[in-house]
Amino acid sequence: MSSLQDLVVLDLASVGPAARASRILADFGLQVIKVAPVQAHKAKQTDPVFHAYGAGRGTQRLQVDLKSDHGRALLQRVAAKADVLIESYRPGVAARLGMGWDELHAINPRLVVCSTSGYGQDGPYAQWVGHDINYQALSGYLDCSARDADGNPALPGATIADGAGGGMHAAMSILAALLERGSTGQGKYLDVAVADGMLNLMSLYLDQYLATGEQTRPGSGVLTGKYAWYGIYATRDGKHLSVGAIEPHFFRKLCQLLGLEQFAQAQYDAGAQDAMRAAFKAAFASDDRDAWVERLAAHDTCVAPVLSVAEVCADAHLRQRGSFVEAIHPERGRFEQLAPLLAGCDRAGPAHQVAPPGHTDSDAILKRVGVSDDEIAAARREGCIE
Predict the structure, then answer these.
(1) Known catalytic residue: 131?
(2) List 11, 83, 162, 352, catalytic entry
(3) Which of 31, 185, 285, 294 has the greatest CB tally within 10 Å of its CB?
């Protein structure tokens, strides 16, 4: 098998789960080529802000008009030498553009083709449009979440569906398909539905219901707030602590350090939870968040601070682990961004030099697959590449 650094990925999406997936693959060292439409035809595509998706770290850019015969032919020549193609069109569109599995497999039998969509390539919902909140809703995630002041499921604080249900789902499936190709010599078609990924994240609750008929609701189980020792508490300074003392020895240690030993033997006593919750609430409200963190977090209590985004970016632990790296934009100057974070990625690389607006690598990419200078020049005159 080739090393990861030898593998070429074509990403036909600019945002969403596919872009999350190619970001992960680039961080693991794969050569990612972002394929974008030409601007001359004012093709419809959402361009992310300059700092999103790693600001193009470790990726190249090819701009090509897939609505032209010449543009499609050029991209097919690139795909013939690639290892992975990721697309996020509505089901059926990629095939109409000449980028469907049948066409690509005929050109390059070793190519792994990954279609990312909200609800999958078939089924009654296949043509539905949607976003993160919709896939969280369909999976049962929102119904198991805490309620807001009006009694509705609370709006989540992160794009879990795009990031994990879609992006990580796609990246993991692509890497598995590449491993399989090492044995079979054949590529594979991957139908990555974000809703499927969210079902996987909800597996504890869904499997519980399927096996026992027991349905998880807010406040019905350990992880949804049934017990006082698994929840969020306000502190004196208006900040918050997370408490997750599930194991009995951690729970007893928490009670001891809070001065609430009267509850140490009542961890699962349903009748004691209201009094325990009130006692925890009063205790935590008596001091500031960081004072409690200093007193509890390092002492086997499963307590951690609820940090704001700004606090996350300044956190000493995350800083020491190299979670943030520097990038340099030709117009905006120096800024920080998240490092390649997943295990096995290199966090210690040089500062990322962001490509200037409008920059493409089209000529270099096409030359690598054998397109002549004359044909590249002709394609530019036609407006099918930029």
Answers:
(1) yes
(2) 162
(3) 31
